Structure prediction request, 97 residues.
Amino acid sequence: MWWRDGLGFEITFVHRPLASEDVPVNYGVVARDDVEVHLARRVEISDRRRSEITIVVADLDGLRAELVGRDVPSHLGSECVAVHDPDGNRIVFSAVT
Prediction:
């Protein structure tokens, strides 16, 4: 999973609908430090909407080095780091100010 392998989050919950369920949703939760992100994919949405979240981190330089070490493509700024997940959603890591 990209959030685990690319960003170092821990997978804390995964729900996969049973074939008998009439709800085409995959849902999961990932966590890292004090941040918990809830992720959902709805297969009936065909226009593939994109989202953006910002996560404030205490050690932005350490995160930059970690992402480089994991070969995660990122856009580096002086006060933030932006990455895109495989579905095109943008995750921005910002320094504590």
